[in-house]
Design brief:
The chain is α+β, with helices and mostly antiparallel strands. The chain contains five helices and four strands. It has a four-stranded antiparallel β-sheet with strand order 2-3-1-4.
């Protein structure tokens, strides 16, 4: 299936349920949604084929990663080097997620590392990427 997927209420409900429990059996989803198992399977297959749903992931307790250092890094890219910078940054496994954005900063990276030495190395690695003009990083202290 190609093109942009248009979501309807059933798709949105299915996605919301999968966000709560990505391992929920199709039969359980069908029961909750009050539709047939085949309807849920067809919708799920279409969402996966269209790329609207990329896959399934595990959710962990908030305190699971409590010993790790988490941070958000805002990155300013020089000129038209964004594609090059993104390719280089994707090679850093400590960058959990990379976002494009508007405003002063061109990219926002979510960082997760084991210790301050690794954190320092990641900051240095990002700043050494050709095309990175400036950055600002904030360590996340607690979730509220």
């Amino acid at each position: 299936m190609s093109g942009k997927h248009v979501f309807d209420d059933l798709d949105r409900e299915l996605i919301a349920l999968l966000r709560q429990d990505g391992r929920a059996p199709v039969s359980k989803l069908a029961e909750i949604m009050d539709v047939s198992r085949g309807t849920v399977q067809t919708r799920l297959d279409r969402l996966l084929a269209s790329g609207a749903v990329l896959g399934f992931t595990v959710r962990v307790r908030d305190d699971y990663d409590a010993s790790r250092i988490r941070a958000v890094m805002m990155i300013e890219v020089q000129g038209r080097n964004t594609s090059h910078v993104i390719r280089k940054l994707r090679g850093l496994p400590e960058l959990q997620v990379l976002h494009t954005t508007s405003g002063k900063w061109d990219l926002i990276a979510e960082i997760m590392v084991e210790d301050l030495a690794q954190f320092d190395r990641v900051l240095r690695d990002v700043r050494l990427v050709d095309g990175v003009l400036n950055s600002e990083t904030s360590i996340l202290l607690s979730s509220i």
